Amino acid sequence: MTSSRRRYSFIFGIACAVTLATTAAAATTVSSHRSHDAIRRAGALTALHGTVPGINTLNLPRVPWAGGSAYYRKFSAPRNFGWTSPKFFPIGIWWDVASNSTEIKYDKSLGINTYVITNPAMSYKLFDKNHVSYIGTRLNGQPRNDPAWVGDFLGDEIDGTSSSPAQGEAKLQAAVNALPDHHKIRYANFTGMVVSWLRGNPTWAAAAKKYVNDYTDVVSMDAYWFSTKQCLSRNPEGGGFMIPWKPNQCRTPQNYGRNVAQMIRQDATDHKRQPVWGFIEDAEGQPGISPMTPAEQKAAVISMLINGASGIIWFNNTFGGACPTSGGVVRTVEYDPSYPCARNIKAMGQINRLIGSLAPVLNSQSYRWTFGPGLETMLKTYNHSAYIFAMPTDDGAKPLGTRSFKLPAQLRGRTITVLGENRKIIPLANGTFTDKFSALTTYHIYKIS
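The line above is the sequence of Glycoside hydrolase family 42 N-terminal domain-containing protein; the predicted structure tokens follow.
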């Protein structure tokens, strides 16, 4: 390049920078068909930063994790059934019974790829035939080497149903001892007791640590904040949890994220890592409680992912309420589209399919980065792009509305695509942008390429 052209390029870049700084007080949001003005601003950023390289890794610390899909390589059953593929993210359903392939295909259309505990009379052959996984105890006639049987089930809520910690520990150890091999993952689900009432209670704290760390390869915890009456209490006892919360934070999507965050914290106490799966109901619950909305349902799943969930399990029964069923919610909706909670199953399918489309992203290790106040976020990179999952916090420290983001230096000078919203955001030259979060259920997923 000649000297005169270098001077022109330099002056043009400065001029564009000045234009950008003086005409945009905040980041610009544009539709998928960007205006000439937006394109000009993008050109200014390119002039400021030069050629923008692809994003492979960021110079940021990582969030500790179990290993994504690669974690399952040590277990031959899930390894041989496709679980080590980055394109596979476990999305399970609890006690869903299918009597034929048509019903399983319906479940798969909702994004379900794993069945967790079911009626022992269900035909195990349907799983392998339709390439869906099974985690549970042996079904009638099921051979130990059934390819679809990827996980052994050790127990449900043993922490809350045992008369003493010693009895609960004995139950789990007996379940482990009864297994002939360790080719499958070992899974158990617990209650919120394993992450609460630990302070000042060393006996229970030690038992809770053992429950979560000593027997399983995959773990989850259920706490149905939208469907039980705990949140109706004047004092729902949020102060007793590992991550304390206030009464107005009880019945929120973010409290499901706290479930996962607390289980990850408890799991890390032995300095080892196993996948923690999020657990959520697929319909509303007890009488006297306002129904869970589809928006709340989807936002709760996003919060669990942001907080580190390595899989999702949907509880497929109801507690009475407006949506009673004796055959499982999903199967009821399949045959009765007028069922009151059909909208929840539709929402479940939408968020499951979104997860499936982002499986390789979710199976990558997250980075530590604080984008700004009033946000809970997750940052990942995959295939030369960065992904930011974001939603507002529920602590009330910052009113709902506009949130400000500051990007890491490596991500500056790039246009942001907001997935599923048909819009783009062009950050300012200093890597900041703003976006709106009008409700606790609002979430956005940003892709930066």
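Note on the example: Residues 1-26, 31-51 have pLDDT under 50 and may be disordered. The longest helix spans residues 3-23.
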